[in-house]
Every structure is written in structure tokens, then in C-alpha cells.
Amino acid sequence: MIVSLRNSLLLLLLPLAAPLAAPAAPLAAPAVARRDLLGVTAASIFAAARPSSAASPALLPERAALLDSIASGSGDVESRIAALLPFDPSKGRAASSASLSGTWELIWSAKAEAFSPLLRLPPPLRPASFQLLGAAATAEVGEGRVAQVLTRGILGKTRLLLSSGVLPAADGSSETLEIFPPFRLQVERGGTKKTLVDAGSDASFRAVNGRDDDAQAAPKNRYAQTYLEETNGAGDLRISVITAGDPVIVGAVFVHQRL
Predict the structure, then answer these.
(1) What does the alpha-carbon distance between residue 99 and residue 94 come to, in Å, rounded to a whole number?
(2) What phi and psi values does residue 73 have, to the nearest 5 degrees?
(3) The model's pTM
(4) Which candidate in 40, 107, 111, 153 could, as Cys together with 252 as Cys, close a disulfide (CB 3.0–4.6 Å)?
């Protein structure tokens, strides 16, 4: 059973890149999809300027348009993301913001299949996906770490947790987090966790996931936080992208909502 889980579920969700007691019911209609629409690429999305708006994020029409697109499953989510990024409330300093801390539910992603085949499943089989950062991660997987959590759907009450180290990038990039070992994949049933994988290097973890030599030799994953709402209340949005590291996941885009 453990071997089967290890072979089929090693790629939980992201590198990344933050940390639970199983959260309450997920958003009404989380949508996870891969799209390359209207010629909008991940690189162009995250190259947008960010002249921050003085308006409350909740009042921004660009924000409302993004949430409407996600809820309806329309094909213009990436262009809606690009329109919202210039109004980043963190003004490009999200990596060091205290508002990163918390439990975040994934409500949309491009390239999610690179992390876990479970996220390809249709509702109601698709698990809910959560990311834990800061104090939420510390309580679950230890200080200085980030955790990705899959639960519900086909998993029922079982939880799969992938955790790693995380710090603001050493080069001073104010919006970027760097992900580093050890990488741990755990399964939890009935309040008891069992470790399936404990990898002490990027290369060894990528090897376990079937990456080729080039991917194993790639640098550490870098995780840019390109939009962060800082009210610290339920419903805050966060948009992020993997900008460097494992080539299989570079370019993955995520929209999370705070629980």
C-alpha cells in the first residue's frame, strides 16, 4: 500500500514551495487547469509592471473579473491575472511579508499536472489542495518550512503532505522564495503520519520523481509571489509562479485564496 502511494503520488504539489488541521469545506468550485491562451505565457504574465493601486483590493474590477473567470471555468484566466498584477498590494515585497503566513487553498493553477496527477481528476474525485506558510506550516511540518497538502475527493480523510525548506531568496529578490531540502512526502491517516520519502537534496528528490539528469542538475526552485493581499482576512488572494529550478515545473502558475 505504501509503495503504491509512493509510486503514484510523489508529485504532490509544489515546490514549494508552505504548510494543518484539515481545513473546512473548500471553495464552491475550485478549478485547476492548464492553459496557454491568446498568446499569454507565464513569462509575459509575470513581467507586468506593478504601479500599486490605493483602492481596496476587494473593490478592484480586475480582481472581480479574475474570480468570475475562475468560477466559470472560462478560458481567459491568464489574461485576467495579467490585468490584476499591476495592483499588487505588497508592492513587489511579498517574499518578506508577514501576510504570507497562513493556510491557502488552491483555486486555479496552470501546469498543476506537473505536481500531481490527482489534480487532473474531475470533481468530485479531485482532492482539495492547500499550501501552508509561516505559523501554519510550523505547526504541521516544523519551522522554516512550507507544505503542500492534498485531502478530500478521492483521498477522503487521508492527507498527503509534501514539505520543504523555504526562505526569501538569498539574492535579495523581494518577491521570491527559494525552496530547499530536505523534501518530505508524508501520508496521514487517523492523525498518524508516515514518511514515504525524505530526500536530502534537490537531485535526489527529483530522481525519486523520475526526472532526467538535466532536471536533477537544475538549480533550486524559485517561487515568485507576484500578487499578495495583506488584509490577513479570509478571502485574500495570492498569485505565484515558479520561475527557476526543476524544468518540469518552471512556469507553473498558482492562484490561492486564504482560508
Answers:
(1) 8
(2) 70, 25
(3) 0.80
(4) 111
Pairing of strands 128-133, 145-151: antiparallel
Provide the domain count of the chain: 1
Partnered with residue 180 across adjacent β-strands are 165
What are the angstrom distances between the C-alpha of 130 and each of 102, 111, 140, 144, 216? 10, 16, 12, 17, 26
**For residue 219, which amino acid is it?**
P
User: HSE of 57 in the Cβ direction (CA atoms, 13 Å)?
Assistant: 24
- Taking only the tens place, the pLDDT of each residue in 68-92 is 999 999 999 999 999 999 999 999 9
Residue 242 belongs to what domain range? Answer: 2-258
d(C-alpha 58, C-alpha 40), whole Å: 25
